[in-house]
Specification:
mainly alpha, 0% strand
């Protein structure tokens, strides 16, 4: 499953612009940081 997911991600990265991919990753990281720092 991991190898298949990696292959799919590689194909998606080739299809999608690198800048857009980086922006998505940064957005996810920011959301994770916000949720982890927010009080429960």
């Amino acid at each position: 499953l991991l190898s298949t997911a990696a292959e799919l991600r590689t194909k998606l990265e080739k299809l999608r612009p690198t800048r857009h991919e980086a922006t998505e990753d940064a957005g996810v990281d920011a959301m994770e940081i916000q949720s982890s720092t927010l009080p429960n």
